[in-house]
Amino acid sequence: MRRAALIAVPYAWLLALFLVPFAIVFKMSLSDIAIAIPPYTPTLKDGLAEMIRAFDFENYVFLTEDDLYWKAYLSSLKIAAIATVLTLLVGYPMAYGMARAPEEWRPTLMMLVILPFWTSFLIRVYAWIGILSTEGFLNQFLLWTGLISAPLTILNTAAAVYIGIVYTYLPFMILPIYAALDRMDGSLIEAAEDLGCSRLSAFWLVTFPLSRGGVIAGCLLVFIPALGEFVIPSLLGGSGTLMIGKVLFEEFFNNRDWPVASAVAVILLLILIIPIVLFQLNQQKQAEADR
Amino acid sequence: MRAAHFFWDASLNTPVFAPWADPDAKPLIRFQNVTKSFGDFTAIDDLTLDIFEREFFALLGPSGCGKTTMMRMLAGFEEPTQGRIELAGRDIAAVPPNKRAVNMMFQSYALFPHLSVWENIAFGLRREGKDKAAIAARVEDMLKLTRLQKFARRKPHQISGGQRQRVALARSLAKAPKLLLLDEPLGALDAKLREDTQFELMDIQEKTGTTFVIVTHDQEEAMTVASRIAVMDEGKIMQVDTPDRIYEVPNSVYVADFIGDVNILDGTLTANGENSFALHYAPDQAPITARSDRPFTDGQSAHLAIRPEKVAIHKEKPEGVDNLLSGEVLDIAYLGNLSTYHVRLPGGQVVKAQIANTRRLSRRDITWEDKVWISWTFTAGVLLDQ
Amino acid sequence: MTRLSRFNVVSLTLGFAFLYIPMLILVIYSFNASKLVTVWAGFSTKWYGELLRNEQFLDAAWVTLRVAVISSTIATVLGTMAAYVLVRGGRFFGRTLFSGMIYAPLVMPEVITGLSLLLLFIGIGLDRGVLTIVLAHTTFSMCYVSVVVSSRLMSFDRSLEEAALDLGASPFDAFRLVTLPIIAPAVISGWLLAFTLSLDDLVIASFASGPSATTLPMKIWSSVRLGVSPEINALSSILIGLVTVGVISASLASKHASLRRQQETQAAARTT
């Protein structure tokens, strides 16, 4: 009896507030925009049979015809992919340094990586506006060093979005890689050196292959949320940077086109399924390797 | 020839293979006044030691005695704080681990989990830039030597613990090192497998002619495999000798106690003949007589170390024995092949006597609280001053 | 693995500089007297004063705090239940769907979660305000709580529960008296995670809230859209300060606890 209640309560909550809403999104994506409240047809008031009959894939057709959308999808994929690679390039050396640091420093280093994660995401993105703007700290600094003679335009470009993503998602990259490196038996490196490897070749032949699971997990943990990112392109990317999260938000609030926004969401989810499945497979493989 | 160190030549009373006894022999490894400190902790304390080619040398001691540090210095993972380590006459301080003709078998085996057995064994050969055919041939040889041919394509997690141990051995032997270091190589195996593997190790050492240095805390393992054993404690070597001499002629109570089971009787000595001393171990008891080649002064305090199997136990008072003591049976430990009787002497000391159970249980007649006699010969024990 | 090469030191130094310099600049310039946030014009705490007099910010902060406390508490209860069901519940009808619904929100883009909840609230005619934000936040943070708690439950020796049952405890008592005290650290960190996620959330709250309730991130958002402002710097500094103090004291507390445990174990080993 208690067991049934234990299962039923969280189950019902998730059904009502996760699955049903998502079904509504799907339904909405098949509806048409209308100048009414709510701003779409058909509604349940028209009767179930009538409603289903009125469903069509018009919004999806519209998405393929208007190149704003598929450009936004492509550009999101590109930005998320490049940003993921950049995050890896910054994060791997840090994770590696942490794993090689003396045992007593590691909790502190770990805390330093996690601490930004607990700080407001919005504030961390906001911090970069003052740094990257034309009269911002970075330009002031570069002008002062004499490296540049005129301020660079970084804010409101894709570069600013990359910086923002690398900055905010860095902990997601570092932690799984660090975990993989930390789990590794240190005597493996000694064995490689004992068998004739230099430091560098021991890294490429042993350390890196063994941290691959962590690298894959880290990359997907950055790529997946970056793809649907809204705050970073809105604050740092300016009007020139197209990302699908931003398009969806604007479609919904500014154009009040709920059906198209829903269709955008459904397609975004379909795209996300691939990396999510990859992530699951990687996690399973890791778990098996640990056993 | 090489098998000599476990076939004892009784007529000569010396092992046939004994380069350490030859003053002209050049050692393969020489530790000269080596000290190694980690912060204020001294792991190795001014240690000097020679190890000869083709030896199977065991570093034996409790954990933290510095034996692993010695091995890691040989492999190149630690540098001595002071002193000099020579390999074949050359100082190796400046040679990094990947350039040393020394290979190591790690306690954890350190098999690369992402590589197959074959690739693990080939790993070191590939670093030397040998051609493919030579590598393949060498790997095959190693697989054959360790009887792993069937498992070449498997990954380390797909084979048993004993097989992993053999992969680790094959991998470290593949480069034909001058010296192979084995860090607790059998520690992860269960008792039965460990015994078989000990003989396998000796066999492989003999076939390849490689010098083996093994680190272990298991005295039986050291006794079985080694040509010589160094017993270590707190960064110092207590005794270096052949297994039989370590057992029969320990130089200190520490060594006697560390290797095997031993009775220690403390007392003071008086000379009672040539190379013969009386040990007064209890105020109102007759002294025990023991022979010793080592000189002692009258009144010196000393310890008699005597192995339980050298103590005989009698129900009736025997005639014509060297040392005879009476006592009462306190405890009996039945081990199947052996029984150990704990006999309390009138002075309160407990002496263990070990008897081979050549008869069925029902026919033995000594039991708890029996009054018994124990005896041993003048030469059965060793007199020790420390 | 404990030999830091020069490369390691450089990459750690640069990496942590990258992580912390932006926040440091933010904090330093919150004490700037000038309204121009990129030009230093002397030390002043006036923006903190202005912030504390700004009713809108204070209202938003109060809403956010209420939402965070309520939603994270409900989410902790539901998430712990869900974790227990997933790890210990055995088989039941729809288990796969259930675990899918636990993990999906973790990877779902916020815009989609927000959109779907908004459509639900409109569909059932629920007025959007504090209640709807709480519902929305509870839903996604319970999933995080359940992941944190279930990973602890998985590494937990089941025989402890069985021992309790063997000694006559009812399943509920076994949970209350044995399981819960042991997984308590995970439950607490789950609560903290849920609390932070709720404090932090902009996108879902924007969808789920109506004119009657504005959360702090929404307030910050609407003002940073207009550019950098010293008041926001002051607000950010306060938040960064709170989090820093919180995280450092939590890690000191856990370090202290593990140190004491270690000492006690050693002391116990000596007495035997």
TrEMBL record, chain A:
Main location: membrane
This protein's record includes keyword Plastid: no
Alphabetical list of InterPro entries matching this protein: MetI-like, MetI-like_sf
Membrane-crossing residue ranges in chain numbering: 12-37, 79-97, 109-131, 162-181, 201-223, 261-281
Localisation: Cell membrane
One CC-aspect GO term: plasma membrane
Top-level taxonomic group: Bacteria
Keyword terms of this UniProt record: Cell membrane, Membrane, Transmembrane, Transmembrane helix, Transport
Topological type in the membrane: Multi-pass membrane protein
ABC transmembrane type-1 domain mapped to chain residues: 73-279
Record GO biological process: transmembrane transport
PANTHER family documented for this protein: INNER MEMBRANE ABC TRANSPORTER PERMEASE PROTEIN YDCU-RELATED-RELATED, PUTRESCINE TRANSPORT SYSTEM PERMEASE PROTEIN POTH
Membership in a protein family: Belongs to the binding-protein-dependent transport system permease family. CysTW subfamily.
Protein's name in the database: ABC transporter permease subunit
Organism, as annotated: Aliishimia ponticola
UniProtKB/TrEMBL annotation, chain C:
UniProt record, GO biological process: transmembrane transport
SUPFAM superfamilies: MetI-like
Pfam families in UniProt: BPD_transp_1
Membrane topology field: Multi-pass membrane protein
Keywords, ordered alphabetically: Cell membrane, Membrane, Transmembrane, Transmembrane helix, Transport
Residues spanning the membrane: 7-31, 60-86, 98-124, 130-153, 174-194, 232-253
Keyword Membrane: yes
All residue ranges annotated as the ABC transmembrane type-1 domain in the record: 61-253
Keyword Transmembrane included in the entry's annotation: yes
Compartmental location: Cell membrane
A single Gene Ontology CC term: plasma membrane
PANTHER family on file: PUTRESCINE TRANSPORT SYSTEM PERMEASE PROTEIN POTI
Family: Belongs to the binding-protein-dependent transport system permease family. CysTW subfamily.
Protein's recorded name: ABC transporter permease subunit
Organism: Aliishimia ponticola
Lineage of source species: Bacteria, Pseudomonadati, Pseudomonadota, Alphaproteobacteria, Rhodobacterales
